Recover the amino acids of this structure.
């Protein structure tokens, strides 16, 4: 897990990543031999990574400022690639997953920093970006909470009709916007997003879940009913009979919106029972313990006796005559997003196995361990691997309310892990009778601390100290652990460690 998380950080010091003269952080998708691969800090690729948000949050905020700045026009159309310097030219196409994902990441950046004024500056464009989905002929013209229009996406195709990948990104964006709207005092928008989220979630569970996983309903859409700015044209020569669709296939990242919602603390977007069944199905169908009998007619990123999660498997359903082009390929960023959700939903062994399979392929002999490949080397999406650290350790910090959560999913008797937030980073240690929060650099302010699964059966009170001084608090014991509420904000720093003892 640590190997996967740290090795991919090299992408930030490769030619994939760079800054321009005004300080803005930019990136290709990856590197070719003599030039970048996939220009314009492609939103639907960079949406998967969280390394910038946890480790270099000023870089993350720079990307959001561009997305909701020069890349978003007055109508709410967000270019999923942008030219630099920004504002000189328009890319001209919007990606459903890219645009909704940026809204979710805006939420995460906001709560990580706790900076309402920063959000207020991005807020008008964020509202336009969401409302763009509701245009006539757009992604969700009925405002029902389901994307059923033409959706360009990270597989370089347009999906026609409701599908779980873009649909889950949309649900996550609705919940993120609901919470941001409440903070910005826009109760009407918050209420609308809440209603659409409920409708969309129920509809997807009722209509796309086939008992094992979520599928796509392929729709015929007349070309003159499709709003402008939604198509690049892949598979769309005949919009009444579109090629390159998913259909009944089991897609590796069909729950990618739930992946980022989990990292961001947005909760379940769909029926959690269905989520768990879907993850089990992805492991059952997409996981190949050996690729010796697996044919990939596109690019080959894994082969022979290597193990991997393939992008889309059609064992359970009928494969379209002309399926999505990449269905038989293996790409690590998609594998990470699925594996990390497995960690979060009770499939820790399977999630760790899938991540271990990736690193076995990039072992330094068969492939460069510091350069996971997709469309180019040092591929940005692979930095999704960092999400395994906060998800497996159960670390989450909301700077707005100064609340930290520590809920490891493994090694309950003795656990030690790295954590990071804007302004501070360090380690925490948990044993059945003691928790120590140890910043190595910077300081972090806490009003509450949730610890689980430790201490929930403690008979006596807990002793809480900072730099050896008692911290006044109240403790609420729950099945999952204990929530500590501090009477005053506690500043935790390298010289003021926080200790909780049972």
């Amino acid at each position: 897990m640590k190997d996967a998380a740290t090795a991919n950080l090299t992408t930030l010091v490769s030619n994939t990543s760079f800054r321009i003269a005004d300080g803005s952080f930019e990136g290709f998708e990856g590197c070719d031999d003599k030039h970048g691969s996939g220009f314009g800090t492609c939103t639907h690729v960079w949406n998967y990574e969280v390394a910038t948000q946890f480790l270099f949050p000023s870089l993350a905020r720079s990307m959001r400022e561009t997305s909701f700045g020069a890349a978003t026009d007055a109508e709410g159309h967000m270019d999923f690639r942008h030219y630099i310097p920004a504002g000189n030219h328009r890319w001209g196409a919007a990606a459903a997953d890219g645009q909704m994902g940026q809204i979710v990441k805006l939420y995460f950046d906001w709560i990580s920093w706790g900076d309402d004024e920063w959000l207020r500056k991005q807020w008008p464009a964020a509202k336009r970006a969401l409302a763009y989905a509701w245009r006539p002929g757009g992604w969700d013209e009925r405002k029902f909470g389901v994307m059923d229009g033409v959706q360009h996406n990270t597989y370089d195709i347009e999906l026609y009709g409701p599908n779980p990948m873009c649909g889950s990104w949309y649900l996550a964006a609705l919940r993120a916007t609901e919470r941001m709207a409440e903070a910005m005092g826009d109760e009407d928008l918050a209420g609308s997003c809440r209603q659409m989220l409920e409708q969309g979630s129920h509809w997807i569970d009722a209509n796309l879940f086939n008992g094992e996983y979520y599928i796509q309903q392929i729709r015929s859409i007349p070309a003159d009913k499709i709003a402008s700015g939604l198509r690049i044209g892949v598979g769309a020569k005949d919009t009444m009979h579109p090629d390159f669709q998913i259909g009944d296939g089991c897609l590796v990242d069909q729950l990618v919106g739930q992946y980022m919602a989990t990292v961001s603390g947005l909760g379940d977007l769909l029926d959690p029972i269905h989520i768990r069944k879907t993850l089990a199905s992805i492991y059952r169908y997409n996981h190949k313990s050996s690729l010796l009998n697996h044919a990939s007619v596109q690019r080959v990123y894994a082969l022979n006796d290597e193990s991997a999660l393939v992008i889309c498997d059609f064992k359970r359903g009928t494969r379209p005559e002309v399926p999505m082009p990449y269905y038989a390929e293996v790409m690590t960023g998609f594998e990470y997003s699925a594996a990390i959700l497995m960690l979060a939903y009770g499939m820790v062994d399977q999630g760790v196995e899938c991540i271990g399979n990736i690193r076995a392929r990039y072992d330094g002999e068969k492939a460069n361990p510091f350069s996971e490949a997709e469309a180019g080397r040092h591929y940005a999406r692979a930095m999704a691997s960092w999400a395994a650290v906060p998800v497996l350790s159960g670390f989450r910090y909301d700077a707005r309310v100064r609340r930290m959560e520590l809920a490891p999913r493994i090694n309950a008797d003795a656990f030690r892990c790295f954590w990071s937030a804007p302004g501070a980073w360090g380690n925490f240690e948990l044993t059945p009778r003691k928790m120590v929060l140890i910043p190595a650099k910077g300081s972090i302010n806490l009003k509450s601390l949730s610890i689980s699964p430790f201490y929930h059966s403690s008979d006596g009170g807990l002793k809480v100290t900072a730099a050896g001084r008692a911290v006044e608090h109240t403790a609420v014991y729950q099945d999952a652990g204990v929530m500590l509420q501090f009477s005053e904000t506690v500043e935790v720093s390298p010289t003021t460690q926080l200790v909780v003892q049972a």
